[in-house]
Every structure is written in structure tokens, then in C-alpha cells.
Amino acid sequence: MLRSCREPIARVVAVTLAVCFAVWADEPAPRKPAPVMTFHGAEWLERPEREQEEMPDEVIRTMGLKPGDIVADIGCGTGYFSRRMAKAVAPNGKVYANDIQPEFLEMVKANCAKEGVTNVETVLGAEDDPKLPKAAIDWILLTDVYHEFQQPEPMLARMLECLKPDGKVALIEYRLLGDTAKHIKEEHRMSVRQVLAEWNEAGFELVDLLEFLPSQHFFIFQRDPDRVAHTE
Q1: In this predicted structure, what is the pLDDT of residue 48?
Q2: pLDDT at residue 8 above 60?
Q3: Does any domain span residue 156?
Q4: How far is Cα 159 from Cα 164, in angstroms, rounded to an integer?
Q5: Residue 53 in domain
Q6: What is the pTM of this model?
Q7: Is residue 106, in this structure, part of any structural domain at all?
Q8: Whose C-alpha in 37, 84, 85, 94 is 20 to 30 A from the C-alpha of 65?
Q9: Which domain holds residue 226?
Q10: Does the structure show a pLDDT above 60 at 81?
Q11: The CATH number of the domain where 55 resides is what?
Q12: How many domains does the chain have?
């Protein structure tokens, strides 16, 4: 019993220290949404190097996806992560591949057909609404896309509505500070402070901040019951 009590406490302390270190290193900076990458950048999303650079299999393992889970890949692009997550939640789980560009969704359909993936449903969203079913999603994944949200506040509010009560969000963004993501334009990177300021205000609570990816922060969020109750 003593050990079972210590382990969660130790994890909370470790996450808190990691976040504090990252935030202390940040300089406050105003942020405006980056330009949206169009479907003309599809080749970049399917580059062979991405497997080593973004470690999709390890990301999915960390999320702990299991058969039967309902997942939303918001800003899915070509479905690079959607297809992989669909295999993890098969046979009775589903992935909603969401994007605001119909051209990307056609690519998702073609790529899924090529790989024999049948449990991906494409969803055309809007800049202020992902158009996903309410209280139905176990996991939302956003990979290198949140910084491009032109209307982040309503999107975050809608995402809260989409999650099941115990649902979580995996957010991946290139690091603004340091040298690990210098190959990415600054407008397409975010600091820990920027992310936490926006997500905490929207009613999300940080569960974990992972730094095993070569160039990216990996945040895991859940709804903050205190803040959500306060704003309702």
C-alpha cells in the first residue's frame, strides 16, 4: 500500500519539475497563428525520415491505445498517424481523420485503401469546430498542427466537448527554444509556456510532458474538472 501511494506522488513531482524547468527556460512571447500548410505539402508529411524523426510507433505506445478505442486525429493531413492508430484500435475501434482541407481527406481515403485500413472515418472540420461527436472520443491527437489553428479558443472548447469524461489529448509541437528544431521555421514551433497558457485557460490539465522525441515536445492533457466546472 505504501509503495502504491508513493508511485503516483513521485510521478506528479517528476512531471511538475519537468514543467517548471521548461517554463523557467522560456521567455514570454506573444503568439499569432502560423500559416496553414496546404495539401501541396503532402509529400513532406509522408517523408521516409518521419518515422525516425517523430517516432510514431513510440508515440502510439505511449498513448496506450487499445482495441475498441475511439480516436480523433485532428489536422490529420495525409493520415500518417491515422492509419497507424487505426491498426492499434482495430478491430472494433475507430479513428476519425479530421482536417479542414478536403484534398487531404481524399488522400487519407486513398492511403487507407492502399494499406487495407477500414476503420478510419474522414471528417471535414471547420476552423472553429472539428465537427466530431460529443463525449465520444477516448484520445485526440494533434501533431504539429495546433500552432496553425486560426481560432484556437473555440477549437479547444469543442475538443473538450468531444472527449469522454476520462478522455485525453496528445499534443505534439516542435520546440521553440534550443537547437533541436532549428530546421523548422520559428512560426511553426511553440514553447511550453505558450502551450500551457492557452490550454490551461481553456480548461485542460497537464498530465505529462515528455521529451523523448528528437525535436518536439509531447504533451498529454485531460480535462481539468475544477476549471471546467467553474466555467460551466
Answers
A1: 96
A2: no
A3: yes
A4: 10
A5: yes
A6: 0.86
A7: yes
A8: 37
A9: 42-231
A10: yes
A11: 3.40.50.150
A12: 1
